[in-house]
Amino acid sequence: MWKPTERIKFHPSHGRVPSRDEAQAARLFSPITLGPLSLVHRTWVPAMVPWRSNEDGEVTENVIAWYARFAQGKPGAIVIEATGIRDVPSGPLLRIGDDRYIPGLKRLTQAVHDASDGHTKLLIQIIDFLRIRRRPEPEVFFRRHLELTPKLLQRAGLQGKAEPEARQALLDLGPQGWQTVLAPRDWQALQYGAREHVNDVHLPHIRDLPKELPSLFSHAALRAREANFDGVELHYAHAYTMASFLSATNQRSDGYGGSREARVRLPLEVFAAVRQAVGQDYAVGCRFLAEECIESGSTLEDAASYALAFAKAGMDFLSTSRGGKFDDAKQPGIGQAAYPYTGRSGYECMPQYLSDAQGPFGRNRAATRHIRLALREAGLSTPVVCTGGVHNFEMAESMLAGGDCDVVGTARQSLADPDWALKTWLGRGQEVHLCEFTNYCEGLDQKHKQVTCQLWDRQALDEPGLRMSDDGRRRLVAPAWTKAPR
Ligand SMILES: Cc1cc2nc3c(=O)[nH]c(=O)nc-3n(C[C@H](O)[C@H](O)[C@H](O)COP(=O)(O)O)c2cc1C
Ligand code: SF4
Fold first, then answer.
1. What is the CA 159 to chain-centroid distance, rounded?
2. pLDDT for 438-476, tens place per residue?
């Protein structure tokens, strides 16, 4: 992962730990409504892909165990990982693209409601993503993938050559020659793996995204409702299709790109279709980027204008993230796919303990406050969820008190200690295991390995009935909190 050159070390701290009485009177542990949905507390576990599903995208026992463990810590809400709205093979990512997924998803919602005694509300993040290929061997790229266009043959002086001969000649050019003759898009595909973009309107399935996505999202949302989720979060963030429509890099000329108004059009149409399908009495919101954090990307002002548009359209909550783009991702090894959290924008999304002077903690606060203020000044009361480097009560409470947000998201801190909020609420905040922000978990995610936390994955491995990772070395869920009496 990209790291700031300063490499200043930051250490998480418990901050000021509240007594039980103080905690239970705190904003963080007060209720809030997101449209039709009531949360008992303002603690929120944002979406995190743990790679627990199978090749069919189904809810497995490991998926259930993972979320039930978070639910034992009784956060106000958990958002299930990015779940694909299409019924197409996508590795072990959860899917909701067909009715056959509903029974498995129902078991998951039941397990979370049971494990939290009905305390925790469960939402599901629904996602569309475009195709991305692994970085190819040059030989394979030149022999099979590269399209031999007349312009390319002309640039390489290979007009009139037979195809096998032309391909061999191109391969023989070597890296310097490739960079000179290949179109920028092909050069990119050779170096990083081919990646579809919303600007590729010459491809019919990309051109037709505005026609297809509203119905794909709305069917997925209906299934979520059928499976007893308490709400859906539309994934409009990071490196995926909807965020690419919102991005300033979206230059489509079909009314869905270019200006801010055109870029937000499809996200609004998707929301309208979802709302129509699930009704007014069901919580629907989105996760989007406060800042893209890439060159020529959308700005905070873009994000504030999107937030106003989403809120006016009737979204029940808005959850912010930042960065996490393919645009500045590091070059993957041959045979690997690019990962959108390896560049500077990736650092902004999941900052780690080696940082710049700003540090990794609360890095999304100021931008989210700006967005929330824009909403409030426009008379809109839509609740805002802010996530990024939050790991203790003091910081979470000050974010609520200072008007940064209405709900506080903690992803890695919840992974490090799923009971952190419960411990705090009970006045036992000193017992919280603090996330060290090393990004060991994110490294596993990058390799598409089952995500675990270094603080607990080698602990108590002799526990009976333990679920172990495929490599046989790590436990798959955090150990139970054994509360010593006080
Ligand atoms: C392993 C892992 C998987 C993630 N998967 C998702 C995801 O599916 N959807 C999403 O919006 N964000 C995802 N994120 C980003 C987190 O939701 C969160 O925004 C990020 O980790 C920063 O918050 P934190 O500092 O509280 O961890 C993931 C993060 C991690 C560590
Ligand atoms: S592995 Fe654990 S401690 Fe390290 S960043 Fe991830 S959640 Fe935090």
1. 46
2. 999 999 999 999 999 999 999 999 999 899 999 999 999
Q: Give the list of residues 6+ apart from residue 49 with CB closer than 8 angstroms, or none.
A: 81, 82, 93, 445, 451
DSSP string, 59-111: PPHHHHHHHHHHHHT--SEEEEEEEESS-S--SS--B-SSGGGHHHHHHHHHH
Q: Give distance in angstroms: CA of 405 to centre of ligand 2.
A: 24
In the structure, what pLDDT confidence band is assigned to residue 91 with cuts at 50, 70 and 90? confident
Whole-model pTM: value is 0.97
For residues 357 and 5, the answer to whether their CB atoms sit within 8 Å is no
CB of residue 450 inside a 6 A radius of ligand 1: no
Name the residue ranges covered by the structural domains of the chain: 8-133+216-446, 138-192
For 8-133+216-446, the fitting CATH number among 3.20.20.370, 3.40.50.300, 3.20.20.70, 3.40.50.11540 is 3.20.20.70
Q: What is the Å distance from ligand 2's center to 57 Cα?
A: 25
Ligand 1 lined by 49 (C-beta under 6 Å): yes
Per-residue confidence (pLDDT) for residue 482, from 0 to 100: 86
Q: Please identify, by atom number, the ligand 1 atom nearest to the C-alpha of residue 410.
A: 26
The reply to whether ligand 1 has any atom less than 6 angstroms from the CB of 125 is: yes
Residue 387: beta bridge partners?
409
Distance 468 CA to ligand 2 centre (A): 18
Taking CA atoms only, the protein residue closest to ligand 2 atom 2 is 453
The 10s digit of each residue's pLDDT in 403-426 is 999 999 999 999 999 999 999 999
Q: How far is CA 406 from CA 8, 211, 283, 368, 410, in A?
A: 30, 34, 16, 10, 13
Q: Ligand 1, closest atom to CA 238?
A: 11
Model pLDDT for residues 28-38, shown as the tens digit of each residue: 999 999 999 99
| Neighbour count for residue 107 (Cβ, 10 Å) | 15
Minimum CA distance residue for ligand 2 atom 8: 435
Closest CA to 268 of 292, 291, 288, 294: 288
**What backbone phi and psi angles, to 5 degrees, belong to 221?**
-65, -40
The rounded Å distance from CA 295 to ligand 2 centre is 29
The answer to whether the CB of 83 is under 6 A from ligand 1 is: no
Distance (Å) from CA 46 to ligand 1 centroid: 7
pLDDT, tens digit, 9 for 90 and up, residues 229-285 = 999 999 999 999 999 999 999 999 999 999 999 999 999 999 999 999 999 999 999
